[in-house]
Amino acid sequence: MGGRDEANGTPDPVEKGFATLSTIRIGVKAMVQKDGELRKAEILSIKQRKDGPSFYVHYVDFNKRLDEWIASSRIDLSHEVEWPQPEKPEKKKAGPSNKAPSKNAQKRVRAESRDVSATPDLLTGKNANVGKAQRPSKAGGKENRGDETPVNLSFGGSEAVSADGTPKPDSDDVDMIDVGFSKDVKEEEKALGLMSREEEIERLRTSGSMTQNPTEIHRVRNLTRLQMGKYDVEPWYFSPYPASFSDADIVYIDEFCLGYFDNKRSFERHRSKCTLVHPPGNEIYRDDYISFFEVDGRRQRTWCRNLCLLSKLFLDHKTLYYDVDPFLFYCMCSRDETGCHLVGYFSKEKDSAEGYNLACILTLPQYQRRGYGRLLISFSYELSKREGKLGSPEKPLSDLGLLGYRQYWRETLVEILMESGRENISEHDLSLQTSMTEKDVHETLVVFNMLRYHKGNWVIVLTDQVVEEHKKRLEKEKLKGARKIDPARLQWKPPVFTASSRTWNW
Amino acid sequence: MTRYGGMGRTRPKKLTSKASIPIVREHEIDLIEDEIQNALQQIETGVEKAEESEFHLQVAISAAAQGKVKDAHIPTPETVLSNLRYDELYPPVFSQPATYIRFSSTVEDCCGPPYCMNEDDDVFLKNFNQKRDAANQCSEDNFEEVMSFFELTSRKEQPYACVDNSPVMSFEEFQEAMDAAVDDSVKRFAKDIYDYWKSRRVSGGNEPLLPTPKAEAGREADDTDPYVCFRRREVRQTRKTRGRDAQSADKLRRLRKELEDARQLVALVRQRELARKEMLAIERQIFMQRSEVKDMKRKLNIKDDDEDLINQRPKKKPVEAPAVQRPAPPQLRMPPKTGTQPAEDLLLLEDVQTEKENEIIRDIKQNITKHIKWNEGYVDFTRAPLSPSPERTYDAAFRPAITTQLPTPPSSESSDNMTDSAIDTRSAIALHKLGPDAMELSEDPSKMPSFRRRIGRGGRLFIDRRNLAARCRVEMDPWKADRFKYDQEDSDEELEYERDQFDIQIMQHRAIMAAKARDQAAAAAVQAHAQAQAAQAQAQAQQAQRRLQAEQLTANNNSPSGGQAGGSNPGPGAAVSTSET
């Protein structure tokens, strides 16, 4: 499990010792001052500035969106630091910043034996936007069985939603065929690839153009600040905007076409030409607050790519590895006299082999905590109802996504269970009424401790807490008015795609 | 299911999804604490394994569990209001249509040229324009179009420029790429801006100036380069058969041909429109030059037949007229190439004029035939009828009194007289008495009662009549006889009276009555209050109407002629009438 400790900083004996500023290198875990306390942080990048070195740190056990650049003064060198793991013997590479190559090599190994389930899924998390790593990632999501289970799992409240998932690289069966037929060839290719990659890395390392090798780059947030519409937004994660953009103090995003500019003058020139005032698709839903637009990734490639680049800034596990063609994008907008402003969106596979009804979901940060995420989730299930299918979001979920979905699931189920006169119901019926999968229904009931075995029979228990929160919610809705998706306003038929439009990509 | 409840000793029943589960409240069952943790272990969160233990997520989950909804959130970086001048950049131009928006234009369609100037370009353009005269200034839009042309063309021609170190495209290569679709402004400035563009590309290592995400370039490093995104996806293989191959190849070929045809068509249309534009420009130029010539002639006092001011065939005689030209009629043929029989295609004034004249004549003829068609079966006895009857004799001027409406109202000649309402009511009465005889039907057309209108001295209008019923009593069907029963009875005595209808006395009497009525009305107007007057007038009007209706009723019962007279349908009889016999 060599990969695991890199992120978790747990297990396996670690080499510890005192360090100085000059010996600190990438991969070192040191104690760092943060909000008046000391936190363990991993150094991910080092930059030389006029006033001394600056370090990009990831706080262990905190979400990556809190990673930041710090001055050297915040590193507490009076504590021992943890040195990065030594390289695997067979992939030994020299040099101080060699951790990356080794990781790289690991990934290679993994890629070769990608069907071996023992592969640590942590790497996939780290390399979420790195090609082949995708495949195990999905498996990883499924194998997420807990061995360190959180206690008292239950929640409510947070409305900020951002779940994400990854487009499926290939359908599994094709994959299998691939492997079966040409394994040898592939392995040869891999070997070749390995060679040239290492050369590449060596070139990058020695050329001095970058402080890190490619696999490390995506762990460091590349944009500093974002200007979009009326707001200045701080990006959360790396997104593959053009490399030159990382030098810009601020990146301008056009609110309507989602085009990106690292120069204010260019942005203003663009605004004088851009005539788009809403997402470039068909409006399929409209009520007093919001509109939904359906945008086809295939027809609106530029717009959808722009959208994906933007949302990658806020979705850690989103992958932009493949193009946007096989997805439909459902964009939620608020309207005013300047146009329909994108508030959030979710993407959906045109044809999901695994029955996912949603791939990525994001409420833009400037609109979070206002109940929009719940509307997005609700809308995704409304589409599933119209399709006559059960659906579930693609995994993995992000932390915010998990909170958002659990809240929606619980509220939706409780609403049905609280209907007056209802004395019993099957999970199957619950799932039919909500378009949630039976698995999601079951797990939600279990997570909120509502499904119990009592005197030889299964019962659904409406706990006092659940009832209480349901009442609170009803009162709040009475007071503020409920924002809900009204199915009658949805003008939508499930789009049908011919085999060629699904497969004939270019 | 691994959850044990209740006694906790026996293995629980299997829970199937279709099984109906009773819903109970918490107080209705015994609470077993230790089962909770057991249960939760079975449920996966769906979050990345490595992130499940994250501090804020755990805090949020446990806070939510304790009902502290407000604490149950995960801190995220802040967003703040921007100091951007939003209103200037995003003008309020959106008006929501009543129906749901349907939209298929792409970003490229909506954003104009993709290149957007930066400050360096501003400096360059300023210098650039300083060296040029006012007519040849390059606007910002022009500049961006040129730059976009360079960028897009080189992207198309050298998609992997930054990878394979290919040299920056030369201007000659761009010139080759300049096809008809390239805007004129681009062609005008391209050469002068090229060097600037090249210098920018060279200084940037031939990287595109348009910010584009890194595309896969077929390199091994692509796979791990985090900047490379939006890769093509391997196409799912369809099962290959000979039939499918031939079929799809065929389809492709056909598609290709159709697209090519469409493209050709568009290109030709474009060519045609350009030619037309050119033609219009030339015509305008000729016009302007002619007007100059005209002025010049005037100034120099040259008097000739102004042949040079109009289009003309070389051989034909020129036509005297101003040099105004009809715009070319819209037609869907290509303007012929210049050089082939230019004289034939000249638009000549005389042709235009004859054409116009012919058109008018044709129009008139058409109208006449139309009119004749309308009045078919009728004879128009009005003065100067549009469709004169072939044998228009004096006798024919008499019009048989057929008791139907006239096909067309009498010509406007008499309308002045008829609007005189004072006389109208009087004469209606007179006609009422006269009518029955006049409207007598007869089998023999020559014996039919008929009328003639003529205008006498002083513009007086006369209606002559003949063949009145008195002298043409013929056998009729009983219904008809009954209809005219009363008319026949009065006819004799009435005739005597009628003869005096146009005596000076009677006319005077009528004049006096009319005058009196006017005077009375005037006097009443002076005396009565406005309200009273209005009420009175209304009452009167109602009374009059009632009377009129009653009259109409009786008249309808009596005879068609009575109906006609009483029904305020002032026919020719509304004027002074006289009897011929």
Automatic annotation (TrEMBL), chain A:
Reactions it catalyzes: 2-hydroxyisobutanoyl-CoA + L-lysyl-[protein] = N(6)-(2-hydroxyisobutanoyl)-L-lysyl-[protein] + CoA + H(+); L-lysyl-[protein] + acetyl-CoA = N(6)-acetyl-L-lysyl-[protein] + CoA + H(+); L-lysyl-[histone] + acetyl-CoA = N(6)-acetyl-L-lysyl-[histone] + CoA + H(+); (2E)-butenoyl-CoA + L-lysyl-[protein] = N(6)-(2E)-butenoyl-L-lysyl-[protein] + CoA + H(+)
Primary localisation category: nucleus
Domain MYST-type HAT: 218-494
Subcellular localization, as worded in the UniProt entry: Chromosome; Nucleus
Biased amino acid composition, Basic and acidic residues: 81-93
Pfam families per UniProt: MOZ_SAS, Tudor-knot, zf-MYST
UniProt-listed SMART domains: CHROMO
Gene3D superfamilies for this protein: 2.30.30.140, 3.40.630.30, N-acetyl transferase-like, Winged helix-like DNA-binding domain superfamily/Winged helix DNA-binding domain
Active-site residues per Swiss-Prot or TrEMBL entry: E394 (proton donor/acceptor)
Protein name: Histone acetyltransferase ESA1
Origin species: Aspergillus saccharolyticus JOP 1030-1
Organism lineage: Eukaryota, Fungi, Dikarya, Ascomycota, Pezizomycotina
TrEMBL record, chain B:
Main location as per UniProt: nucleus
Pfam families assigned: EPL1 (PF10513)
Region (Disordered): 304-340, 536-581
Residue stretches making up the Enhancer of polycomb-like N-terminal domain: 12-151
Gene Ontology terms: biological process: regulation of transcription by RNA polymerase II
InterPro entries assigned: Enhancer_polycomb, Enhancer_polycomb-like_N
A cellular component annotation (GO) from this entry: NuA4 histone acetyltransferase complex
The entry's keywords: Coiled coil, Nucleus, Transcription, Transcription regulation
Annotated compartments: Nucleus
Comp. bias regions, Low complexity: 536-562
Residue runs in coiled coils: 245-285
Known role: Component of the NuA4 histone acetyltransferase complex which is involved in transcriptional activation of selected genes principally by acetylation of nucleosomal histone H4 and H2A. The NuA4 complex is also involved in DNA repair. Involved in gene silencing by neighboring heterochromatin, blockage of the silencing spreading along the chromosome, and required for cell cycle progression through G2/M.
Membership in a protein family: Belongs to the enhancer of polycomb family.
Name of the molecule in the record: Enhancer of polycomb-like protein
Gene source species: Aspergillus saccharolyticus JOP 1030-1
